[in-house]
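Appendix B. Raw example, untouched.
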Amino acid sequence: MKLHGSSSLLVELLVVALGVLLALWADQWWVDIQEQREEQKYLLALYEDVSQAIEAIDTTSAEAGEWLQAATDLSAAQGRAEQVGAQEVIRLLGIALFNIEVYEIPLGAYEDLLVTGRVGLISDPEVRLGLSRLEQKISELRTAETDLTETQHGIIDPFLVGHTNLSALARVGYSAADSRSAQQSGGPLAPALITNRFDVDHRALLDNLELQSIVALRIVLLSELIVAATEVRQALVELQDDLPGTD
C-alpha cells in the first residue's frame, strides 16, 4: 500500500509538472506568434519607408547636383569676366552658393524600433546588418551636411553679404527651386525664373581670389555630400533587397 501511494504521488507530480511545462510552452508559442506578426508588420513598414527614402534621396541629390554643376560652371567662368554675361554670373552665383538643404530620410519604422528598444524583433541577420550599415552611412551623410552648413554660415554667407546683391541672388536661388518643383510635378516653369532681370553686374567677382577659394570649397563639400548620399542610397537598396515585398 505504501509503495502504491508513493507511485500515485509520483504520477501526480509528473502530471502537474507536465501540465506546467505545457502551459509554459503554450505561452511561449503564443508570444513567438505575436512577435513574428509584429516583426512582419515592421518589415513591411520598413520596406515602404526605404522606398520613400530612396525617392527622397534621389530628389535632393538631383538638387545638389544642380548646385554642383553651377559651382563648376562658375569656377570655369573665373578669369573670363568679359566673356560671361552679367545675368549668367548672377544665375551661377545664386544657384551655386545660395542654397543648402538637409536630406530627409523617412525611416519611421526603424526609428520606432530604436526608441522602443525592439530592434531584437528583427530575426533576419541580413536585415539587422543592413540596418546597422544604413545607420553608419546616414551618420556619415549627416557629417557631410554639417560640414556644408557650417561652411555656408561661417564663410560663404559673410562673403555674399559683403560682396553681392543678396536680393538678386535670393530671387535666383528661390526661383530655381520653384522651377525644379514645378518641373517635377509636371507644371510650367516658374515665372520668376523667366521674367526676373537684374541690373546688378557681379562679373568683377570672377577675378576675386576669395570667391575662387569659396567656389572650390563649395565644389568639394557638395561632391562629398553627394557621394555620402549615394552611399546611403546604396545601403537602402541593399536593405530593400532583404526585406519582404521585393518580389
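End of appendix B.
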